Amino acid sequence: MRFVIVTGLSGAGKTQAIRSLEDLGYFCVDNLPPTLIPKFAEACYQTEGKIDRIALVIDIRGRKFFDDLFESLNYLKSKQYRYEILFLDASDEVLIKRYKETRRKHPLAQQGRIIDGITLERAKLKELRDRADNIIDTTKLATRELREKIERIYQEEGQIEAQLSITILSFGFKYGIPVDSDLVVDVRFLPNPFYIPELKAFSGNDKQIQDYVFSFKETQDFLDKYTDMLNFLIPYYFQEGKRQLIVSIGCTGGRHRSVAIANEIYNRLFAAGGRVTLEHRDINEDVRGGGNKL
């Protein structure tokens, strides 16, 4: 089991750190009172490996409970529970700037100056910083750079390399654009098999529809160009810290053209080694009486 205590200065990036660890598969808990760490650790160990990577954010927000931290860490050591401490730090100037930009109050300077709260917090955290296994100074780090550092330290050997998770989602415009879409493409420019009586009852999962949709040169040109664009965009999305991409492909009813196109784009990205899933949101809507196609 890997048990990580995430701590450090308020405003130094603990929230981003815990998000990165969560993306790496860690079970994460934010602001757990330190006095509960022993019970929580025991519960995790009793899962017999089902929960084997844990990250806890413990910081000055715990107020008087924070003083129980070292007692809890000593208990873990006495029980031979292995743990490690990740400490996030940053310069006073940068911390002050971040607080002013967010207009939040420092937890130790509710009524006074931010710098006074930072100074007091540094003093309270000094011993914890001295005991840290890893210290990351975020003064000059962008969010993406912090994520990369976290991944280098805490990605397990043999663990699947972090990738952008891509969902290819077909839908019908008549039922609304999926609200979680990142990219939306309209394939209603393609000939509609709905108007061919012998094809109307089939869906884009059937060979009859696929043969029809892919028989047009504009379909092949579109697939080549759009797949090429996705292959161009994906590394840059990942580089900027995005970990999930929803690519929504729509036709009128979401049963014929969008399904066939979504299937093909999924196949191309999957063949290229992408971490990709496929969903057809509206494929059965008209079958259930959702309305007539236009």
TrEMBL record:
The keyword Nucleotide-binding applies. InterPro entries: P-loop_NTPase (IPR027417), RapZ-like (IPR005337), RapZ-like_N (IPR053930), RapZ_C (IPR053931). One of its GO terms (molecular function) is GTP binding. GTP binds at residues 59-62. ATP binds at residues 8-15. The keyword GTP-binding applies. Residues 1-155 form the RapZ-like N-terminal domain. Keywords: ATP-binding, GTP-binding, Nucleotide-binding. Gene3D superfamilies: P-loop containing nucleotide triphosphate hydrolases (3.40.50.300). Residues 165-283 form the RapZ C-terminal domain. This is Uncharacterized protein. The lineage of its organism: Bacteria, Bacillati, Bacillota, Clostridia, Eubacteriales.
